[in-house]
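Sequence design from tokenized structure. All designs in this work follow the same two-part layout: the structure record, then the generated sequence. An example of the structure record is given first.
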């Protein structure tokens, strides 16, 4: 069984590993460029946005704050807009709306990053597989040399084949590292961008929530709800009977 597996691996060689690493490196590069373009398109001056938002909220201009946020392409602004839309329902409703919007933005920002992390962690092992196949090929050539006749041609060809397999093994290791290192570097960089964006989002959200709690923005119309409940109680038969009994007692 082991001999058949060894012969199959030696027969395939390490070339397919190099082709696989090439394909993975192209996909990795495409993801890096796409994510970099996305983060670049969402960039904005968040401290300046926070100052403008606070100024507009302190002036009571909620519509102006919404327009200022809509003018920003950032993910932070997209989250806070959800809170501004629900501001009339109270701070709790605005906070829940922003939590939902923040979850959606997080999914958008972290999309395809798992591929980079997985590739960065496993590309060296894929290269190591190519290395093992190359070493097996080298040992296989050494075995053939031992069994061959000690002719001049045989002694010249066998060492050349052994060195070729060893070189193929080292190339597989090098390619694995060349694919893994950029993937890991890009993954860590993009993760830092995502964490920074989410931290900025939380800071902007607190600016809006602080304004809503300080101004006592009303939630649902509680008074109208109470009046409607009182009207329903007033029209129940029990309440009418109680009023008739009270009237009869006054007449007596």
């Amino acid at each position: 069984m082991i001999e058949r597996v060894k012969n199959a691996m030696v027969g395939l060689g390490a070339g397919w590993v190099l082709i696989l690493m090439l394909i993975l490196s192209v996909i990795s590069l495409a993801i890096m460029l796409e994510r970099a373009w996305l983060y670049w398109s969402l960039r904005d001056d968040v401290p300046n946005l926070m100052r403008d938002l606070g100024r507009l909220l302190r002036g009571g201009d909620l519509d102006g704050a919404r327009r200022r946020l809509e003018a920003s392409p950032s993910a932070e602004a997209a989250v806070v807009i959800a809170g501004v839309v629900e501001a009339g329902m109270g701070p709790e409703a605005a906070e829940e709306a922003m939590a939902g919007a923040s979850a959606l933005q997080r999914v958008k920002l972290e999309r395809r990053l798992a591929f980079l992390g997985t590739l960065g962690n496993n590309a060296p092992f894929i290269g190591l597989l190519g290395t093992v196949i190359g070493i097996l090929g080298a040992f296989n050539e050494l075995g053939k040399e031992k069994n061959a006749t000690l002719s001049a041609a045989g002694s010249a060809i066998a060492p050349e084949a052994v060195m070729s397999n060893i070189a193929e093994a080292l190339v597989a290791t090098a390619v694995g590292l060349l694919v893994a290192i950029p993937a890991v570097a890009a993954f860590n960089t993009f993760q830092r961008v995502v964490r920074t964006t989410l931290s900025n989002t939380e800071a902007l959200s607190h600016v809006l929530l602080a304004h809503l709690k300080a101004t006592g923005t009303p939630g649902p119309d509680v008074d109208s709800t109470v009046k409607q409940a009182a009207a329903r109680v007033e029209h129940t038969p029990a309440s009418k009977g109680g009023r008739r009994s009270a009237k009869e007692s006054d007449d007596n």
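DSSP finds ten helices and no strands in the chain. We note this feature because it recurs in several other targets discussed in the main text.
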